[in-house]
Amino acid sequence: MQKQYIKADVILSLGSACRTAHHLRKNHLRLFSSPLDWMVSGDLDIIYDLFCNDFKDFFLNYEVVKHSKKGDKADEPIHVKDVKYDILSIHHFFANEDLKIQSKRVNEQSIYRWNKIKQKLLLAKNIVFIHCGNFELEKIKKFLTKTSLLLKRNGGGNNIKYYFINISSNENLNENEIYIDEFKFNENLHIINYTINDSYNGFIGNASAWKKILKSLKMPLKIKIKNAINDFFIRLKRSCKRRIAFFTKKYKNDINEFH
Fold first, then answer.
1. Where residue 219 falls among pLDDT bands split at 50, 70, 90?
2. pTM of the complete model
3. Cα 31 from Cα 25, distance rounded (Å)
């Protein structure tokens, strides 16, 4: 793999599942929480629509696709799908609370998080989107072009560089093989596809390959240190809450744990 070094002011996960956000967090590149981080989504047209409407109706129309099993813990997540956007949540809904209350909470959290992200995007000079899934060049080009125009209409600056990094999987490769294809449409729009064997370790995938790829993204050291410290305290808080819940048998659902 020939390394491609990219300066990044903002790095945003676009899914298509939890793996992307997980590896950004593990490599201290995750600046903030995104509504799509722990969702299962794959359609870039739908993601663009959500960007346009600021997630205002996200998860207000939903259906349960997988109930908790009898005997599961009280705070065991259930799988709920946004019917309009065909996006699946596997971490944010629980069997022990009214779904309407939870739907409103997910919606409000998503709007709040997106508004923070949008302000960062409008101020950034180098924006990196990362997606894990099948590589569809024309669809990615269309998404990147439309998103750049959307941000410009909303007050984003000129000459912003946009990068779309896609990580696709080929099970015929060995664990250490990484292939790269780069497409540059103009000075501001870049698409890079990395092909690896990402079938290892369940949802985590090929962690060593992800680490090598993400090393190409350059952020200020002070930001990476801040991200690492924040991640440590969030995980510590989560661990403490679970221990308290275990001994007290009192469960309180907190979707902010999925930061």
1. confident
2. 0.88
3. 9
